[in-house]
Design brief:
The chain has five helices and five strands. It has about 160 residues and is α/β, with parallel strands linked by helices. The chain has one domain: Alpha/beta knot. It has a five-stranded parallel β-sheet with strand order 2-1-4-3-5. Helix 1 packs parallel to helix 5. The chain starts with a strand and ends in a 7-residue tail after the last helix. The model has no long low-confidence stretch (mean pLDDT about 90).
Length: about 160
């Protein structure tokens, strides 16, 4: 099993990249996420129509990166919230299944309906709307924390 993160948005600010790398590098090689960037679609204006068109275009770009056999987890505010222990159990389940896991992070207008339909699971990191670049850091830290529980590492405290 390999972990992939498909995220809409060009290169993130240096602090986001540093935060993501900080946690990703702490994970064992088998669980270290591979980050793939999807370019933002052009938004002609701030209208709903332009946003929908951009979200659909980004969604098509995302779907092209997802292998048919992949287990897809869409990060979405309306998804189910997981505790760190629940994430730890999911990671173990995904490892046993042996399929690559793809986490999908939308752009400023979220994920397209097609991406949400393709997802095997919808996961909400928070009821808050988070900047899509920050989600990369939060996701990497959550994966590291979940791994630390299973590894008996003292990072996670309850």
């Amino acid at each position: 099993m390999r972990i992939h993160i498909v995220a809409v948005g060009q290169r993130a600010p240096a602090w986001v990249q540093a935060g993501f790398e900080h946690y990703a590098q702490r994970l064992p090689a088998a669980l270290r996420p591979r980050l793939q960037h999807i370019p933002l679609a052009r938004r002609a204006d701030k209208s709903t129509r332009s946003s929908q068109r951009a979200r659909d275009e980004e969604g098509q770009r995302i779907l092209k990166r997802l292998p048919l056999a992949a287990h897809v987890v869409a990060l979405h505010v309306a998804g189910t919230g997981w505790s760190t222990r629940q994430l730890c159990e999911r990671v173990k389940l995904w490892q046993r299944a042996g399929r690559d896991v793809y986490f999908v992070i939308g752009g400023p207008d979220g994920l397209s309906g097609a991406c949400l339909e393709r997802a095997d699971e919808l996961w909400s990191l928070s009821a808050l709307t988070l900047p899509h670049a920050l989600v990369r850091v939060v996701l990497a830290e959550a994966l590291y924390r979940a791994w630390s529980i299973d590894a008996g590492h003292p990072y996670h405290r309850e």
